[in-house]
Amino acid sequence: GQIVKLTDYRPTDFVLRGVDMTLKLFEGHTDVVTILSLERREGVPADAPLSLDGDELILASIAIDGETLAPARYEATPERLVVRQLPETGNFELRLETRIAPEENTKLMGLYRSNGIWCTQCEAEGFRRITYFPDRPDVLAPYRVRIEAEKAVAPVLLSNGNPIESGELPEGRHYAVWDDPFNKPSYLFAVVAGDLDALHDSFVTTSGRTVSLGVYTEKGRAPQAAYAMDALKRSMAWDERRFGREYDLDVFNVVAIADFNMGAMENKGLNVFNHKYVLLDQDIATDTDYAGVETVIAHEYFHNWTGNRITCRDWFQLCLKEGLTVYRDQEFSADEREPTVQRIASVRRLKAHQFPEDQGPLQHPVRPGEYREINNFYTATVYDKGAEVVRMIATLLGAADFRKGMDLYFERHDGDAATIEDFVACFEAASGLDLSQFALWYAQAGTPTLSVTERWDPEERRHTVKLRQSLTQGAAGTGTEPMVLPVRFGLVGGNGEDRQAAAEVSGEARLKDDVIVLTGREATITFGGLSDRPYLSVLRDFSAPVMLEHEQSEAERLALGRLDPNLFNRWRALDDLIAEALTTAARRPLGDGEPALKAAIVDALLASADDEDLAPAFRAQALTLPGESDVARQMRENVDPDRVHEVVDAARVTIGAKGLAMFERLSAGASATEAFSPDAESAGRRALANAALAYRCAATGDPDAAVAQYRAASNMTDRLGALAILAHRFAGEAASESALDDFFRRYERDDLVLDKWFALQATAPTYTAVETVERLANHPRFTMRNPNRVRTVLGSFAAGNQVAFHRPDGAGYRWVAEKLASLDRINPQIAARIATTFRAWRSFEPARRAKLDETLRQLSEIKGLSKDLQDIVDRSRK
Ligand code: DPP
Ligand code: ZN
Asked: Any idea where the Peptidase M1 membrane alanine aminopeptidase domain is (predicted)?
């Protein structure tokens, strides 16, 4: 495939003024008539042709200003339409007809059918699968869309914007016309047609306009959209309050679709969702699912301003909308839930997904400089590190100037296809800060290391803190200049309060309130006038996405784990201690009997879990040990997944045994006594009880408590919490098998719940899980056509089952590779995404490394591999 480069950007030769489309939906095919109103851009040579993108298209007819074109004037292939001898000046109308087959579209890009419903996914380059078009985000136009379909099959006809007309047609057909007055790029185009139910509500904006809201679902499921609707209204109100952003159309619709490549899509006025992020109630969904729906609903809604009103000039600027919108949804969740717990969850996610990406062969900067397949750049780096970069801007500027900068961005660029430079310039203008060095965060790939050392001078009563940053060049080959690191800190006294101290900075850094802004490779800050040695709490709230190397004694870290008034760092003090201990232990050989965790660390963890002054959700986070993949990542090389599993599991047993009495108390009657409410506080109580149950069963080796909770559960969180313990800790045992059978029978009819059943079995940490996934893939309810199902079997196994995927005989690798090869012919995007699991191959011990290498080589040599999968495989091998 061809490489697209950021530096090659230039505007189109023709300006698009408007789009008028008619989609005639029939069983088996759809006829699309597109009228593009175009004009040659000033300064473009008169003989320059018009070149439009296509993908697997067949042109049925072509006319300009009502006149059919002679074949000599155009050239059409499935991928391109070139038209010559076009008017030198003035507007002209290009009319195109294409015939497409949504029923055969298994890539789920463009127009396709899911359970009979017609729906679209156009980001990034799906629109060109519907009609020939200048399919790039800097081509903006108003759209008018007419949909025609058989009324009995598709009573509901939706598109972007406002509905302006509808009516009957002969032969039982009908039509609807939608008008979107806002200029938009083609990737935000959407059409949905089908026999759908809906939940309706309305929202009155701050200026008093009433917006009709609809959440559309498959028949009979509208009641399960109630929480999504609630989250939507809260998102709309929050964006007004926090960012002064009001909704702009008369309607806002969300549609839940069963077969969907992404989580959801922010099409203007018509968000299309993976139904996993819409449909729930307490019987079918866990608290994690509730939080997921809330976040994704908010995220897509927030895109209306950060993405839609202001979009991206080109796909290299993807983080302009995604990083910013993730930051916004994180802030929303922090406000709606527990801020510290939300931050812990975001940082865990960043470290689990983005850090390994940034340190491996698929490394790329937050704004990539080139790509072969843009679908492969919807990554943790663009999204999550992109959000961290925005968060650092907010930290550097402070809340007031950050808001000023955002206001200016909306004011200056409303209606634009903008760039990162445009975005950053707004914060410079708002604050007077020079952010040119800061902008390196967008250009330099890799995770910087921040080293911190301290020296207490008892004579002078001075504490000296030395900061150093370094960055090594990785696969992306980008620069390694020092970056701007905002390091939030506190000097904690023995009473658990932050001390105030006069500070003196030497080296390239400055101090802004409680933030050290490190700009050079190193700097020293001296704090004077202290009565005794403080505990240094550094990188509070994870104020910069770095790897922290802080030379601090175990005693000091345990003290911070008990005292730090910054709760995020209180959590991190223990989490880091545990992660390091597990990593050290995992480097010792398999079967080494030494306990991984010292008694003092276990006691500290148990004290934290039992501290009733802390929110239950926080205590549950404290009990969540670093996962096997976190330990593997920290080891960096020579990883033996069996040893990692042994170490992490032994730690669970040790903690469970020592805290057994407490865990029995905390796990007793998780939900039996209270009516279900999905709010964050109640969810926190359930999380704590379920964490306690897991430790209890680890300690006793007895499944009875889990079986009892499974049976008595009155909500899915408790039922699945118990089932997860049975399916993983007691895999293969009678208690586990019968609970899994029961679960299947209970929820057989609901694919969303069935996904949980598939995923739990695919992630059971035993060698036999390879045979299990083989069996699951042959299960009548398994299908390669449904991305969720594929993700819950193949994806969960490859990314979430360290033991079985890495089985020493290589059977796990072979099975995944085989499945990916066949999946690639159906849905390349999903195949490529799952294949990224192989990128860590270099970090394993020699025998597994060789097998992984060989598997990747075999994959790379398959003939006719998609551009998506080929790109991932080739880059992973580098
Ligand atoms: N649907 C994806 C998201 O919202 C891509 N825009 O992040
Ligand atoms: Zn997004």
From this structure: 227-438
DSSP string covering 84-153? -S--SSSEEEEEEEEEE-GGG--S--EEEEETTEEEEE-TTTTGGGTS-B--STT--EEEEEEEEEETTT
Ligand 1 pocket member 544 (CB < 6 A): no
CA 209 to ligand 2 centroid distance, Å:
26
CATH number of 4-195: 2.60.40.1730
Q: Which atom of ligand 1 is nearest to the CA of 299?
A: 4
Ion ligand 2, residues whose Cβ is below 5 A away: 322, 325
Give pLDDT tens digits for 732-787: 999 999 999 999 999 999 999 999 999 999 999 999 999 999 999 999 999 999 99
Position 673 pLDDT exceeds 70: no
CATH 2.60.40.1730, the chain: domain bounds: 4-195
- List the structure tokens of 294: 């809330």
Question: Going by CA atoms, what residue is nearest to atom 1 of ligand 1?
Answer: 265
Q: Which CATH architecture has domain 750-878?
A: Alpha Horseshoe (1.25)
Residue 92 to residues 22, 38, 211, 474, Cα–Cα distance (Å): 19, 5, 36, 50
Could you tell me which CATH number the domain at 449-552 has?
Answer: 2.60.40.1840
CA of 307 to the centre of ligand 2 (A): 8
Q: Is the shortest distance between the CB of 384 and ligand 1 below 6 Å? A: no
Best probe residue, ligand 1, of 322, 325, 329, 829 (max atoms within 8 Å of C-beta): 322
The string of DSSP codes covering 731-772 is: TTSHHHHHHHHHHHHHHTT-HHHHHHHHHHHHT-SSTTHHHH
Burial (CB count <10 Å: 0-12, 13-18, 19+), residue 864: exposed
Half-sphere exposure for 297 (CA within 13 Å, toward CB) = 33
Length of the chain: 878
